[in-house]
Amino acid sequence: MTPLAAEIGPRAGEARRIKAGRIAFVCASAPSAQDCRDRLVRIYGDISIAEADIVVALGGDGFMLETLHAVLGRNLPVYGMNCGSVGFLMNGFGEANLVNRLNTAQAAILHPLRMHAVTASGSVEEALALNEVSLLRQLRQAAKIRISVDGRQRIPELICDGVLVSTPAGSTAYNLSAHGPIVPLSANLLPLTPISAFRPRRWRGALLPSGAEVLFEVLEGDKRPVAAVADFTEVRDVASVAVSEDRSITTTILFDPDQGLSERIIAEQFTV
After folding, report:
1. Which value, in Å, is the radius of gyration of the alpha carbons in the chain?
2. pLDDT of residue 53
3. Fewer CB under 10 Å: which end of the chain, C or N?
4. How far is it, in rounded angstroms, from Cα 97 to Cα 218?
């Protein structure tokens, strides 16, 4: 079975050949990120994403996620430099030797989750998620959600604030905050994690094979409305949500040697 995500360097026998003048620099709206971009552009030049061989994203993890969504399907690697508050997906900022850093970086190849949501009115909306797809109660009352995996009912009624399916790359984000497991990139698994589950009280979630299709059905939706969120896309008043990995789409994140995403995910499990 093909791994959900792999981490590699430049192809065997072949160096990555990024040159100054072929780099698109994008930045978050924070003044500090804009200042970093101005400094790098003065040294290395700047072109549009459409013309670039690589994108350098300047900001925090939130901006990195936005950038990855912007280049989905373009076969364009993204190298992040931390100019924000959280930098799990970012490398350290530095002006010197950037071209060499880009050419020697390790590549983490990721596949998104696809959300297929049907609303109470019957409309259908789809979206992609590189972190997670989450279902969340909209009002004061707990949600009631039925969970099926590959057509087989697994939880007849989960009473909760919500529930999510995460990618391995996203397992250290909202999934971890909801006490879900951290999953290595090569584990070929998707965490399914409840958010403040009331019943079944002792259910802590599951680890699913990456090829699984998860179906969430909202019970008593008129009384207990639920919203579904795929990274930045929110759909309110959903009746059902299907989630599965979309292996036809890839995105590539670059990391400095010995600081790759696999190592960061492993190290995060030993943080106390």
Report:
1. 20
2. 93
3. C
4. 52
Q: Which amino acid is at 221?
A: G
Phi, psi of 70 (to 5 degrees): -65, -25
Catalytic residue among 35, 46, 53, 61: 61
CATH, domain 113-245, list 2.60.200.30, 3.10.580.10, 1.10.760.10, 1.20.1510.10: 2.60.200.30
Say how far apart CA 65 and CA 71 lie, in whole Å.
10
Structure tokens at 158: 């989960």
61 tagged catalytic: yes
Give the model's pLDDT for residue 8: 52
- Count of other CB atoms within 10 angstroms of residue 12: 6
Domain locations in the chain?
A: 6-111+250-268, 113-245
The model carries a pTM of 0.86
Neighbouring residues of 173: CB distance < 8 A, sequence distance ≥ 6: 61, 88, 131, 132, 166
Q: Return averaged pLDDT per consecutive 10 residues of the chain, 272 residues in all.
A: 45 58 93 95 93 95 93 91 84 92 92 97 97 97 98 97 95 92 87 96 93 97 97 97 95 87 79 70
Judge whether 133 and 115 are in contact, CB under 8 Å. yes
- Cα atoms found within 13 Å of the Cα of residue 127, Cβ hemisphere only: 19
Question: Domain spanning 6-111+250-268: which CATH class is it, in words?
Answer: alpha beta
